[in-house]
Amino acid sequence: MKVLSSILSTAIICASTSFVYAQEGTTTQTASAPSSYSCDPATCKPSNNCLCASSNPPNGLDPKETPQFVVITFDDSVQDALYGTAQQMLNVTNPNGCKAKGTWYVSMQYTDFSLVQQWYAQGNEIADHTFTHVGTPSAQEISSAKSMLHEYGGIPLNKIQGFRAPFLNYTAETLKQLSQQQFSYDSSSSASSESDLFWPYTLDYGMANDCWTGICNPGLKLPGFWEFPMYAVMNNASVPQLMDVYLSGSPEDVTKWSLDAFNKHYNGGRQPFGIYVHPTHLSSYPGLPDPKPLMDGVINLIKNLSETKDVWVVSNQQLLAWMKNPVKASEMANQPYMKCEKPVLPSEICNGLDDNNSGGIDDSLLNNCNFGTSNFKTCFNCPSGAPSVSSPTPGSSTQNGTAGYRYPVPASCDPTWWDPIGNKCFCDASATNCNYKNMAVATNKTTNGNGTTSDATSVMTTLPLGQIIASMCVALLWETFSYSR
Ligand SMILES: *[C@@H]1O[C@H](CO)[C@@H](O)[C@H](O)[C@H]1NC(C)=O
Ligand SMILES: *[C@@H]1O[C@H](CO)[C@@H](O)[C@H](O)[C@H]1NC(C)=O
Ligand SMILES: *[C@@H]1O[C@H](CO)[C@@H](O)[C@H](O)[C@H]1NC(C)=O
Ligand SMILES: *[C@@H]1O[C@H](CO)[C@@H](O)[C@H](O)[C@H]1NC(C)=O
Ligand SMILES: *[C@@H]1O[C@H](CO)[C@@H](O)[C@H](O)[C@H]1NC(C)=O
Ligand SMILES: *[C@@H]1O[C@H](CO)[C@@H](O)[C@H](O)[C@H]1NC(C)=O
Ligand SMILES: *[C@@H]1O[C@H](CO)[C@@H](O)[C@H](O)[C@H]1NC(C)=O
Ligand SMILES: *[C@@H]1O[C@H](CO)[C@@H](O)[C@H](O)[C@H]1NC(C)=O
Ligand SMILES: [Zn+2]
């Protein structure tokens, strides 16, 4: 009852402020061809970490031999219920028997960093969506989120490569900041017509999407920095839908529009296809409409796509690895970045995985950090005060050498092998006995390669059932109402 009233009062606040904010990327503008863009593929080549915007696959690959990538992305805070929704959406298998992977663009407020770590430990991508979820973010909004994902989620700094601007509201300055802060790519722009249906490309010759905003000004050149356009789906009135397409019509209509768009990519230049969601709309909350019909529609669409020949459901970072070294669909299964392996450990350590197969992840090993609106669990030390944009990682509440201290992941150790309590790396450069379990399962999909393994192993994890905490609903409802009304 207490929880419910808190939700309702929050809902009212949210509903009344929602008019102030633009919907976060729900629809976009139909683009015209970028007239100012000019890039010569003879000089701009993958071997120089350069790629021109193009609707054809890189390196002259024949579209029929090119993998059809599908990226599923999740935006905003990572919380129990949202995490469960994301897991259900990725519950399909790639042709090599590994589970589909996704990308989460994480904003900091209300995020549970133990779930950030679990997401990453399962091979998914963690990316930056600012600290407070503001459009046209400052340098500090971008850097503070990265620091927190590293400090409390244990994500190596060099594995946080992607960014998406809140409300997709980015400028040339945002892109420059990202490049300066060592990000590899941005994914805030939209590809909304046949004239800008480009594969990801580097900004050596500037932007070729969203040109109607003036962003394609030739003054903006960021060598080696990538743009991953977001691919729109046309509704039956030819309005491009970008995010949360399932909110724009009945599940039947949305599925039809989505398959039509997908087929344009699949039968055309095999440009990646995207499903971009705010998992809030697809998660159950007391007092809100049952999202099951929407969720069923999305899941059936994802299953349908994943059963299509040569489709790989990947994180944007996996797609980036492919962009840097494009191979045929028949060679995908053997690419190292497509593998799915789990460390085999003697007992449970706080690494985001269920190491002792008890059905729980990091059972009883997590710290609880409570600071009003920033309550989160973590395998690492709690800060001594609430993190803020200007001080995202205040000093630890526990000192090195005292009981309960958690040791940060050293750069030499992958976080899935690191025991932050025991201060031990179970597989570092000097270790010879790193033991992995292949998580691939048998599938009937043909890869024309050597991908599918027959020694199928169990499904990787059972998710802990989350409880809805009143405070977390604040963020959820803010997003829900501001986006759907
Ligand atoms: C994944 O799919 C399997 C089989 O359809 C089902 O048993 C399982 O509960 C699903 N897991 C999630 C997280 O949705
Ligand atoms: C987007 O950015 C512009 C320019 O900085 C700003 O005026 C506008 O309020 C922003 N919109 C949102 C929704 O953040
Ligand atoms: C689009 O489909 C809806 C039903 O889903 C229908 O009401 C509407 O008239 C259609 N619009 C166009 C332009 O065909
Ligand atoms: C996906 O759905 C479409 C339309 O219902 C159907 O024609 C197609 O065969 C389906 N694809 C797969 C692989 O099930
Ligand atoms: C797994 O590890 C946790 C945490 O150390 C422990 O509480 C639990 O008893 C272990 N379960 C099994 C089955 O070993
Ligand atoms: C903790 O203290 C030990 C001993 O003083 C030192 O060697 C180690 O580098 C410190 N570790 C961290 C993470 O501060
Ligand atoms: C593969 O195909 C066989 C025969 O059609 C079927 O019995 C089996 O269940 C399928 N396996 C999977 C993992 O889909
Ligand atoms: C399968 O792997 C073997 C050894 O790695 C290689 O020689 C062979 O060409 C591969 N076959 C295909 C179809 O990729
Ligand atoms: Zn957002």
UniProtKB/TrEMBL annotation:
Pfam families (UniProt xref): Polysacc_deac_1 (PF01522)
Gene Ontology MF: a single term: hydrolase activity, acting on carbon-nitrogen (but not peptide) bonds
Keyword Glycosyltransferase set for record: no
InterPro entries noted in UniProt: CE4, Glyco_hydro/deAcase_b/a-brl, NODB_dom
UniProt keyword annotations, A-Z: Signal
UniProt GO BP: carbohydrate metabolic process
Signal peptide from the UniProt entry: 1-22
Entry keyword annotation includes Membrane: no
Limits of the NodB homology domain: 65-183
Protein name as catalogued: NodB homology domain-containing protein
Taxonomic classification: Eukaryota, Fungi, Fungi incertae sedis, Mucoromycota, Mucoromycotina
